[in-house]
Amino acid sequence: MVAVLSEGTRLLFPVVYVLFFLGTLGILAVARRRYAREVWLAGFFTTLLAVTLVGMPLLPVVDMHKFAQPSEEEETYYEIRMVDASGEELRVDDRATPPVTGTRTSTVGGQLADEYTDEQRLEMGEFYLENVREHRQTVEAGERSVTDRLQPPRYVDDRAWTAAELEEYEAFEAIRIYEHTVVYSDDNTAVDSTEERPRVTIDPTDGTVTDHEESR
Questions:
Q1: How many other CB atoms sit within 10 Å of the CB of residue 12?
Q2: What is the value of pTM for the model shown?
């Protein structure tokens, strides 16, 4: 029975996806007819309601329901922090480094930790320092670019630097990559444990790269 349900679920996703767009094209073809728009809206909200009730993501409304995609039991992501002259750290504000924003920051962090050569690390470190210094000046001056003002709201866990916060830090001189490991409960409803460890420090100012092997 479980095997049958599993197979049916795998077939359900592509079927719903294809039918949704075929139905939309069909409605567009007869859009001037009476009740055409009402039928499309009824179908859309019925699908949305079904997804909400069963807690199963169905394209194309996968991002429009209250249930998140289930996570793996263990998840690893990377964080990039700026290091100032006194050794204090501050999580990078990725507004400083477009197009390396959002999840791309974690991707780049992982590559800096595991894949890049020291030369590539120093080159990327210089990229971050140059852009972050410019962004810091903009934040401290209270200025916002036109493009920044036109950006849609960011994720709720996103936090922009503030001028008051930056007052506590000296000039940034290096970047440090941290690896975070999160272990979830079996049903994905809670976090069982989290672990953080530094992986590499890149200092383009003096041209050094330090792998934190002892933290492994």
A1: 13
A2: 0.63
